[in-house]
């Protein structure tokens, strides 16, 4: 099973403990706060707890009616942020800087319109991110490869010292 987020294996015990505090009602409430209320009732009815959501893969999301790779990624990413109470480290403006430096400016509005930030590119498995980028209309294989493979190097060369104060439940996505 391939998890949605690439860093899950490293943080498994800590995340499992935190996820244990989320029953199905609380998971549904989190989905509502993320503007994913269209999935909340299904997650509640199927008794999707935090532990279950933490271990969700693309197949399970599809079975729950979350067919969009973009929504799968966002639900997983924002749930992890909710668990940790973490803030956004690599914002959209940081990602935009990367896109400009790599002559990919034409994708800035697509990334912004779809709520894709730098943290998502860093933390999501490359295969899922490739699917997300295709889903949102970035079809050039070269552009997708550049975004998925070079952003990590960019982050090491151009780290951000400014953290956004936006937590997972405060981010609004389509």
Can you give a write-up of this model?
It contains 11 helices and no strands. It has 2 domains: 12-84, DNA polymerase, domain 1, CATH 1.10.150; 92-161. The radius of gyration is 16 Å and the shape is globular. The protein is mainly alpha-helical and 174 residues long.
Number of helices: 11
CA-atom Rg in angstroms: 16 Å
User: Looking at CATH, which topology of the largest domain would you report?
Assistant: DNA polymerase, domain 1
Query: Structural class from helices and strands?
Result: mainly alpha
Distance between the ends: 27 Å
Strand content: under 5%
Output the helix-strand order.
Answer: HHHHHHHHHHH
CATH class of the largest domain: Mainly Alpha
Structural domains: how many: 2
Supply the CATH superfamily name of the largest domain: Transcription Factor, Ets-1
Mean pLDDT: 85
Helical content (DSSP H or I, runs of 4+) = 55-70%
Largest sheet: none
Shape: globular
CATH level-two architecture of the largest domain = Orthogonal Bundle
Unreliable stretches: 5-9, 162-174
How many strands in all? Answer: 0
């Amino acid at each position: 099973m391939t998890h949605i987020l690439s860093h899950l294996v490293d943080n498994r015990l800590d995340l499992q403990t935190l996820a244990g505090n989320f029953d199905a009602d609380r998971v549904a409430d989190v989905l509502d706060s993320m503007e994913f209320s269209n999935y909340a009732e299904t997650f509640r009815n199927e008794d999707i707890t935090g532990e279950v959501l933490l271990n969700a893969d693309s197949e399970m999301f599809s079975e729950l009616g979350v067919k969009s790779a973009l929504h799968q990624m966002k639900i997983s990413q924002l749930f992890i942020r909710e668990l940790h109470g973490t803030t956004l480290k690599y914002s959209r403006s940081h990602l935009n800087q990367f896109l400009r430096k790599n002559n990919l400016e034409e994708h800035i509005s697509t990334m912004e319109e779809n709520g894709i930030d730098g943290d998502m590119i860093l933390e999501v498995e490359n295969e899922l991110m490739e699917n997300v980028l295709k889903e949102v209309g970035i079809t050039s294989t070269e552009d997708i490869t550049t975004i998925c493979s070079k952003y990590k190097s960019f982050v090491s060369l151009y780290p951000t010292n400014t953290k956004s104060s936006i937590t997972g439940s405060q981010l609004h996505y389509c």
